[in-house]
UniProtKB/TrEMBL annotation:
This is DNA ligase-1. Residues 1-35 form the signal peptide. Transmembrane segments: none annotated. It comes from Desulfoprunum benzoelyticum. Its cofactor is a divalent metal cation.
Length: 285
């Protein structure tokens, strides 16, 4: 489907872009299918990223604009006020609902509420999935729309070409010093393709990932009568997490079956996360 839309776009003649954009909007597939096809990042592990593009990793809520509504990573429709998307384009966008560093909990609460205050949020876009060309050319399609619609609640995330890895490390230090999350690295020549990809990498000093809670273990000493740790499973196996929880969370821990986000520093010889620390319940819809 994406190939069909790209080819159609390439066939548009000069002066007919508005008509083409409208027709592209009618060609998109349903929301759930689009959400399932989102591009997902892998961890940076010493890959050669010379000539790639880098940008700040935003700690927001993933959102996909399908020309009619904003969808979560799992395909659920967000409910922003009508004016929020009034000036959105008639072509698909992939990005993050974001308002600033260190505000994930607030952003998540806003987008999960039917009456949340969206006034400080914007969709920060890192790709235009159905546009033709490389990453820079795809984003240029959005920038052209924003030049004509500066009031749109959209930001085109700046992409910097990577000349050497020292540049990436300096960028990471700058972001983390300001309270940011990390760096996203992207092969600009690669087309947009859904699923976990070697062409999109995340680089952070401290990594995070997701797992599913499988069991609760009672605490000892000062944690007697409360949670001491819980077992958790990811695609590589089962392990325990016992740190990072507040007293309130130990008294009312995430139920078995909950998907949580944890932080870790590298891997053990068995491939399991080293020093895993609880961060939060994954709250994406």
């Amino acid at each position: 489907m994406l190939t069909t839309i790209r080819q159609f776009w390439l066939n548009c003649k000069t002066g007919m872009h508005c008509l083409c954009l409208s027709l592209v909007g009618m060609l998109v597939f349903n929301g759930a299918a689009q959400a399932e096809a989102l591009l997902l990042a892998k961890e940076y592990q010493q890959q050669n990223v010379l000539g790639w593009a880098m940008s700040e990793k935003l700690d927001g809520v993933r959102a996909f604009w399908n020309t009619r509504q904003l969808l979560s990573r799992n395909g659920y429709a967000f409910t922003p006020p009508p004016e929020f998307t009034r000036d959105f384009p008639p072509f698909a966008l992939d990005g993050e609902l974001y308002s600033g560093r260190g505000q994930f909990e607030r952003i998540s609460a806003v987008v999960r509420s039917y009456r949340g205050d969206w006034s400080k949020l914007k969709l920060h876009v890192f790709d235009v999935p159905e546009a033709p060309g490389n990453l820079y050319e795809r984003l240029a399609v959005l920038q052209k729309w924003l030049d004509a619609h500066p009031q749109a609640n959209i930001v085109c995330i700046p992409q910097q070409p990577v000349h050497d890895f020292a540049q990436v490390q300096a960028f990471l230090r700058q972001i983390e010093a300001g309270g940011g999350e990390g760096v996203m690295l992207r092969d600009p020549k690669a087309p947009y393709q859904g699923g976990r990809s070697n062409q999109l990498l995340k680089l952070k000093s401290v990594h995070d990932a997701e797992c599913t809670v499988t069991a609760h273990h009672p605490g000892k000493g000062k944690y007697t009568g409360r949670l001491g740790a819980f077992s958790c499973r990811n695609e590589d196996g089962e392990f325990r997490i016992g740190s990072g929880l507040s007293d309130a969370e130990r008294s009312n821990p995430p139920p078995v079956g909950t998907v949580i986000t944890y932080r870790y520093r590298g891997f053990t010889a068995k491939g399991l996360p080293r020093f895993p620390t609880y961060l939060r319940v994954r709250s994406d819809p």
